[in-house]
Amino acid sequence: MKRYQPYISPYISAFILAPVLMITEVLGEIMLPKMMSLIINNGVANRDTGYILMMGIAMVLTAMIMAVGGIGGAYFSAKASISFTSDLRQDLFEKVQKFSFQNIDDFSTGSLVTRLTNDIQQIQNVTMMGLRMMFRAPGMLIGALIMAFLMNARLAAVILVVIPLLTLAIAVILRTAYPRFEGMQKAIDTLNNGIQEALTNVRVIKSFVREDHEKEKFRQANHDLKKASLGALNVVITTMPVMMLAMNITTLAVVWYGGNIIIDGGMPVGDLTAFTTYIVQILMSLMMLSMVFLQSSRAMACVKRINEIMDVEIDLTDEQAAYPKLQVKEGRVEFKDVCFSYGKTKDNLVLEHLNICVEPGQTIGIIGATGSGKTSLVQLIPRLYDVTSGQVLVDGVDVREYSLENLRSGVGMVLQKNVLFSGTIEENLRWGDEDASMEEIQKAADSAQADSFITAFPKGYNSGIGQGGSNVSGGQKQRLCIARALLKNPKILILDDSTSAVDTATEAKIRECFRTSLKNTTKFIIAQRIGSVENADQIIVLDEGRITAIGTHRELLKDCEAYQEIYYSQREKEEAGA
């Protein structure tokens, strides 16, 4: 509970008022049966109309006070639970935003979505129910028991036989429910993952005519969720009939035993009516408690899943930052004996003992086969991942000694997978600099050879972008992402195969812009086509995480066999295509 105290404290008044106001309902429910018995025993038996009217007014006033308390209790319980979970959801989202790529790899996207939505919603529902039932159910149970014993201790003994049996049944049900609810939440994760993957990649699915395959995958995931849900809800389904059966049997026993007492003259008729109501209240309070406990078991499964996120140790932080205010000013980059693995151990190294020194303003091309470690190499510069061993230095300072914000502010990166967000083109470009003038935005777009097609749209820079950039071509998406990075005006620019969908003429114009407008910016260009990097100051050839060669285009063409092989194979394809 200490973990959730900060989320409760701002709304402590609502957390207190909700159950307190519900007490008025409890007091009213305990008083009304007694008032009814008095009407029957005194008013009806003595034919005293005035007494009946007086008690009737008292009952109406009591009911009105109960209504006010019930409405107030419901309002404050809703306010407390919704506010509490809203703040929790906000902090949970902020924690996920702090995750490193390594942390994100430990959770599926669908699972994170489920935890931020469905799991927190379950906690909200149980919190709301708990606040309303916190005093109401126990208060009704205790109050009704006291009134029942005050009326007739012998008759009240009947309920003492039923309560232990019901308590045992509830305990067995709860023990069965927890693992089933946990399994249900995991099944929701799986379904959400499948839905997200299918909707995100719907164009690929249609192009490969795999709709039937995806339908079958969804059918299986949906079936698994249905099975898990029924398994969990069967526990809920069982609870209600068991409680109702116990209530009805107990009521019949009380009526039969109480009827005999009345016949013998040991109890007024009105008391039996009130006593029967108290028995129902006792059993109803037990039923309410069982439902709270049952829903709490599901909520506890959700709390466990939320705690898993809250307990994640973020492996990329500013704790090691010796110079938290230092900013990237020159763009010098150096790799010193760098080794890197995506795991937490040194097994299966993706990069092995790399030593590279890049001066400010240089253009570095990176070439290599798929899986050679090109993307892994550049991701170490802005600390998307940390090195397994060795050092990455920017301006002579280990990247771990910068604050993440200042380091990444000095690095512009166009990732291999180009991503745009829902909104206008202008809003997407402002990710590079939200305070940029329209002139600066247009200049960056022009440098990325994007201004011409943007202005061709009816609304120009105010044109809408579909989710993920679904309404622009691959080449247009790449140019928009390059423009976004250029607007950032970084000291280090990383382009990870970011012109693969652009024609060679347009790519040449973009490269020319880099040489003129970004002459003081250090540029790393990962490419499959040698033509994209042949004018670079240095070209790094990678193979299976190791540097095969470093040099200019002419040097590599003369001395590097691997580079020669790539170069001549690409020329043959170009000549064949021509």
What are the main properties of this structure?
alpha/beta, 578 residues, elongated, 19 helices, 4-stranded antiparallel β-sheet, 6-stranded mixed β-sheet
Q: Percent of residues in beta strands?
A: 5-15%
Please report the number of helical segments. 19
End-to-end distance = 71 Å
- What is the residue-mean pLDDT, rounded to a whole number? 85
The backbone outline, from C-alpha atoms, is: elongated
Uncertain stretches: none
Name the strands of the widest sheet in spatial order.
Answer: 6-9-10-3-11-12
Structural class: alpha/beta
Got a strand count?
12
Q: Could you state the oligomeric state of the chains shown?
A: single chain
Largest sheet: 6 strands, mixed
Radius of gyration: 35 Å
Helix content: 55-70%
